[in-house]
Structure formats: C-alpha cells, structure tokens
Write a structure and sequence with these properties.
Blueprint: H1 5-13, E1 20-27, E2 34-42, E3 45-49, E4 59-62, E5 66-71, E6 77-83, E7 91-95, H2 98-109, H3 113-137
Antiparallel strand pairs: 1-2, 1-7, 2-3, 3-4, 5-6, 6-7
Length: 139
C-alpha cells in the first residue's frame, strides 16, 4: 500500500490525540544493530523519527494485520511486530525498562482497525441494551 508522505507527516504532527509516544530502540534487519528512535502511535499508525521535535519523518508502520510478540533477547526488554504473508517484513524493538515494554505492547495490541471496530460494535450494543432497560423500566 502506498501512502502519501505529506498527508502522513501532517497527521503525525497535528493536534489529534496521541495513543502513546516515547523512545524505543528499533532493530535494523541488515546488521542487527539497534537505533534509538522517537515513536508516536496514533490509531493504527506507528510513526518514528530521530527526536520528538524533528520535522523529518523517518517512517511509518501500518499496524493492520500484525501480531505483537514479547521476547527478551540480547539482554534487553524486547518485543516485535510480526506480519504474515509474502513481502511483509517484521520489526523488532527494545526498551530500557520492563514497564516501557509492557505499556507499548498493551497499546499496540489494541491499535488495529479491526480491534477498534469490534470495540465500537460492543460499546454500541451495550449502549442500545442500556437504553432498552431504561425505556422498559419507565413504562
């Protein structure tokens, strides 16, 4: 899928709410070294850049269809985003603390469009059910 860089950069920097943000170490696939990057999660898009105030976006990961996997390797607190299918690449991340990994894994697990759609559907069903109870009780 091809995404327009100007639109992504605007969405990343606009005042819409951020689901999570902070520094993580992103593992390079070629040589296995980790680079410190600033990550911003908005909806199902995970943006990354060198520092929080940077205007230059280094990349974006669309989280649809990925699985979040915990792994403690290299003596670090690690997790990965695993995509299935031909042509998809997976990503490995590390953090300095267990709490940081836990918060990122938790928020990433709930970041997909499918998850949010199911959550919205369940909330709508609960809302309709509560209205039926209120309406039924007042008769």
């Amino acid at each position: 899928m091809k995404l327009h860089k100007k639109i992504l950069t605007h969405y990343q920097s606009c005042t819409s709410p951020v689901d999570n943000e902070g520094y993580l170490f992103k593992k390079k696939q070629r040589n296995g070294s980790y680079h410190r990057r600033w990550f911003i999660l908005k909806g199902n898009l995970l943006f990354y850049q060198e520092r929080p105030a940077d205007r230059r976006l280094l990349g974006v990961i669309v989280l649809e269809g990925c699985a979040v996997r915990r792994a403690d390797t290299d003596g670090r607190f690690c997790f990965g985003l695993v995509f299935r299918g031909p042509g998809f690449k997976s990503y490995q991340f590390a953090a300095g603390e267990e709490d940081t990994v836990e918060s990122w894994v938790r928020v990433l697990l709930s970041a997909s469009h499918c998850y949010l759609s199911l959550l919205l559907r369940d909330l709508h069903t609960q809302y309709q059910g509560s209205n039926l109870i209120e309406d039924g009780g007042g008769s």
